[in-house]
Amino acid sequence: MTRFDPVPEHVTEQARRAAEGRAPADSRLLELVNDSLLDIPLGVSRSGESVRVVSFTGDGVRLDARLEGGEAGSTLLGSIAPVRARTVDLHTENSLTMLAVEPDGTFRARDLSHGPVRLHIEIDIDGTPRHFHSSWFNC
After folding, report:
1. Exposed, middle or buried, 86 (CB in 10 Å: 0-12/13-18/19+)?
2. pTM score of the predicted model
3. Closest CA to 30 of 51, 6, 55
4. Given this model, what pLDDT does residue 120 score?
């Protein structure tokens, strides 16, 4: 006879949060502190320029991301400071993509559709994993 233990409530809650696109309960918010798109004066058009830089900070961590527009979609190139990310997940409204973290600490996503995205990041501080997430932003 097979016996199944009930799923712990905290596991069920984390699954609900993930399915709804919400950050894990132990994740800290990195708030938007700079967006190059907001630096453009009203009424000024920069035709042909398709580069945007966004920066987020919180709890001693900084996330910088460069978004480059292209015909197939946007490319995101990002990095974390002062420590290197262990894992980076890119969330859209309908998907989750694990991004490879390069030896220099950068990560990249190509051919992103226009729309809202959020990054979930795991870093290691003194042997302890810590989780962060950016606020939603459009690419």
Report:
1. middle
2. 0.75
3. 55
4. 95
